[in-house]
């Protein structure tokens, strides 16, 4: 079963810390999202393996946009 990690708010991706195939643990930082001049770490909500990374540095994201898929 896959888990989608969604953007909690609109902003700009300033760092992507994982790539497909990486093993991740719940709480591990996946992406750094800049919004309102603050850096917001986006973390894994489950243990698993990264299936997809749908964002890159400097991408603009909208609220609820799928950024990472973990299975």
Question: Can you tell me about this structure?
Answer:
- By secondary structure, the chain is mainly β.
- It has a single domain (3-70), classed as OB fold (Dihydrolipoamide Acetyltransferase, E2P) (Beta Barrel).
- Helices cover 0% and strands 54% of the residues.
- It has strands at 3-6, 11-16, 23-24, 29-35, 38-43, 48-53, 60-61, 66-70.
- It has a four-stranded antiparallel β-sheet, with no helix packed on it. A four-stranded antiparallel β-sheet has the order 5-4-2-7, with no helix packed on it.
- It is globular, with a radius of gyration of 11 Å.
- The protein starts with a strand and ends with a strand.
- The model has no long low-confidence stretch (mean pLDDT 97).
Quick synopsis:
With 71 residues, this protein is mainly beta. It has strands spanning 3-6, 11-16, 23-24, 29-35, 38-43, 48-53, 60-61, 66-70.
Q: Outline the biggest β-sheet.
A: 4 strands, antiparallel
- CATH topology, by name, is OB fold (Dihydrolipoamide Acetyltransferase, E2P)
CATH classification, class level: Mainly Beta
Helix- and strand-based class? mainly beta
Distance between the termini: 6 Å
Give a quick set of tags describing it:
OB fold (Dihydrolipoamide Acetyltransferase, E2P); four-stranded antiparallel β-sheet; 71 residues
